[in-house]
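[Q] Does anyone have a clean structure-token version of this?
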Amino acid sequence: MVFLKGVAVDIQCSTRELRDGLVAVAAATGSKKDVMSNILVTVLKGAVELYATDNEASVLSTVVASGGVAGEQFLVPPQRLTAILNEITAETVTLSILDNSIRVHAVGANFRLSNENASSYPPRNRFDSDAYYRIPGAVLRKMIRRTGIATDNDSTRYALGGVLFEFIGDGLVCAGTDSRRLAVANAAVTRHGDCQDVKGVVPNKALKLMDWLPDTEVEVALTERSIHVRTDGFELSARLVEGRFPRYRDVIPKSPTVEIVLPVPKFFAVIRQSQIVTDEENRGVEFLFDASMLTLKSQASSIGDSTIEMPIEYDSDEINIVFDPKYVADFLKVVNHEAVVNLSLTDSETAAVFRVEDSYTYVIMPLATDREDVKAAELDVSW
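[A] Here you go.
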């Protein structure tokens, strides 16, 4: 660690790239007013590293820069500096580090920010494993979006507050559940080194940090206690959630009685319409499948009622099942709007299975048919 006393050190970089780098790592800063509420900046040759941690998760982003002294480290307050960069119109910004202050220079704008001593900042977590999996960042982000919707941060069963990552052979399975619904996504991966089948629950905070992953290939290493993700200019490490994830495969019905094909645009439209006449106490919507028609009925005493119809290909026995339309809408928001949904039903009391292609499965438990009881039944899972 290098500190220069009494000598101003200038670092120049792109305003936009520095702002984006700060935003990418800021979510990992600690919430308390201590040294970890800052971002640690390390000067490299031709770049600066931005690093943040709260001792549960950590993120590192690299930004192209010139100037400075390699090895120099200092802290920056992310919210203040990001606010400044959001308002600067110049393409380039200069940071001047002098003792206990940071000066931010751009055409027509000068700021001075106080900063803390970097010597007490926690050491960096490093991705040093030779055994890891490769997967396109765009694919991993999509898997996280599709499964993260089913997690439950408020559950006392901590494993429900994250997404299960399960590496098996040349594949990755991600699964999330709040005990009333289940989301499962699959993708192929490439092994590097001596990779073993492994699984662990990644916390939601780390999943949100992965929003910054690029579309290009990323490297993922999973241990018994932590996950590490690396790509050019970006690294993430996080502790896994403690606790056992339920045996999610057991809750997916194996022998449905009917299969229904539903085009996403039309299905999503009737779901949104059905939500208009619902409230917290009356959020159940009846789904009636009968005679080439899907009929959705909703009713709330303080609002009114609605009946929405959608022609479908259906010639089996009538099935009347009640869902929380929000759960269905959550699913439809994360799928391709030009896709078709394959819906598998057994009866009015058994979980329904929504599938898109072969890579995404979404399971929802129906609500009780008594409108006074809007609580969904829980999936029958083993732990």
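[Q] Thanks! Anything notable?
[A] The CA atoms of residues 313 and 369 lie 25 Å apart.
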